[in-house]
Amino acid sequence: MAATIPTLDSYTDYDSFLVDHFDPNAHANSIIHQSAKGDLDIATSLSSLSFSIDSLNKQLHNQVTTHYNDLLSQAAGIRELETVLETVKFGLKTLSNSMERLSLKIKTPSEQIQTYTMQLERLQAASEMLRRVLRFLYLSKRLEMQMPGGELELTQAALTLSEVDTLLQESDLEGIHVVDQEVQSLESVRGRIIDSADRMLQDGMNSQNQAQVGSALQVFYSLKRLDLKIVAMTSYLSNKLHSQIKLALDIQSLQKEAKESGTNSTTGFVGGGVRRNNGEPSVGAAALWTSILWKRMERLMDDMYTGCIKIYLLERVLARKRDPLTQVSFLDVVSTSMDGNMVHRFWQSLSVHLEQELKASARSSQFLHQAFIDGFPRLLNLLHEFFSRVSVHSATATSEDVQSPEIVLMFRSISSFESAYKAKTAQRNSHR
C-alpha cells in the first residue's frame, strides 16, 4: 500500500488505521487530548483526514479502472462458483436424505434382529435350564426308587448319584426351589449309599466274596471315593494288626492270662507263678507262660493271615474292575493316588510294626526276650507256615517265597532274634 500512495500524502500516518481492533472513538479522543495540550490542532487533523480520504478514493478508483477486466472475470467466476456451491449443497442435501432413509431401512431391522436374538438366547438358556431341572428331578426320582434294592440296585444308585453330582457341577441350579429341596435330601441318600457300601465291603472281605467286594468298590468308584476308601481300608487293616501284635506281646496281658489259668499244684506255682518284684514268671511257671505265649503267636499268625488275604482280595478285585469308558483298572487308579503299590505298602507297614513290637517287648521283659531267642526255630516255623498259607492267595508261588519282597521284609523283622539264637547255639556247641 505504501508504494501506491502518492508523494503528497506520504507524510500521512496510515499505520494507526491498520492496527487490529481499530477503535475510532479512541482515536478521536486521542486527537482531542493532544489538542487540549496544545500539541495538535483539531482543524488541521480534520483537514488531514479529509485529504487522506480523498486520496484513498482516487487510488481505489485508479485500481478499479486499471483492473476492470480482471475484476469482471473474477465476479463472473464467483457467480459460477456460487452455482457450483448450490449444486453441491443440493447434492449433499439429497445424500443426507438418502442416508436418513437408508438408516431407517437398516437401523429398525437391525434393532429388531438384536431384540429377537436376545430373546432367542434367553429362551434357549431357559429351555436348557428347564431341561437340566427336569433331568435332575428324573434322576432324583430314579435314585429314590433304586435305594431300597440289593447289590445291583446299590451300584446303579451310586451311578445315578454320580450323574446327579456331575449335573450339579456343570449347571448352576442354585436358587431353584424344587432343586434346593432335593439337594438337601441327597446328602442323606449319599450317606445311606456309603454306609451300605461299607457294610457290603466288610461282609465281602470277611467272606472272601469277590462279587460283593467288586460291587462295593464300584459304588465307591462311582462316587469318586475309591482311592480314599482303599487308603482308609488298608490303614484300618494295618492298624488293627498293629493292635493285635501289641496285645499278643503285652507282658501285662500275658501275666493276667497266666493268673486266670488257675492253680497248678504239680508245677508248684499259684495264679501263674508271677514274681512280685518285676512281673516276671517264677521258675515253675515259665513253662505255662511259654505255652500261653506261643498260643498267642499262633493266633497272631492267624490274624495276620486274615488281614493279608483281605489285602490280596482287594488287589485282585481292583485289578479286575475297570472304568467302562477309559478301560483303566481300578488298581491303576488307586496306585496312582496312593503313590505306590498297595500290597507292598501293607507288607512294609506290617513288618515294621512286628519288628517294633518284638523289640519293644524284648526290652520290657526278660522272659519274652529269652523266649523268642530260645524259641526262634518255632517262631521261624510259624512264619513259614504263615507264608505257605498266604501264598495260596497271592501271585507268588510257595517255592518263590524266599525271594519275594514280603518274605524279606518279614524275616528282617526277626533278624535280631535269629542272630542271638545263632550266637547262643554256637556258644553251646563250643562248650561241648
Automatic annotation (TrEMBL):
GO terms for biological process: intra-Golgi vesicle-mediated transport. It comes from the Eukaryota. Keywords: Golgi apparatus, Membrane. InterPro entries: Cog5, COG5_helical, COG5_N. It is found in: Golgi apparatus membrane. Residues 16-143 form the Conserved oligomeric Golgi complex subunit 5 N-terminal domain. Residues 173-387 form the Conserved oligomeric Golgi complex subunit 5 helical domain. The keyword Metal-binding does not apply. It is a peripheral membrane protein. Transmembrane segments: none annotated. GO terms for cellular component: Golgi membrane; Golgi transport complex. PANTHER family: CONSERVED OLIGOMERIC GOLGI COMPLEX COMPONENT 5, CONSERVED OLIGOMERIC GOLGI COMPLEX SUBUNIT 5. This is Conserved oligomeric Golgi complex subunit 5. It comes from Mortierella alpina (Oleaginous fungus). The gene is COG5.
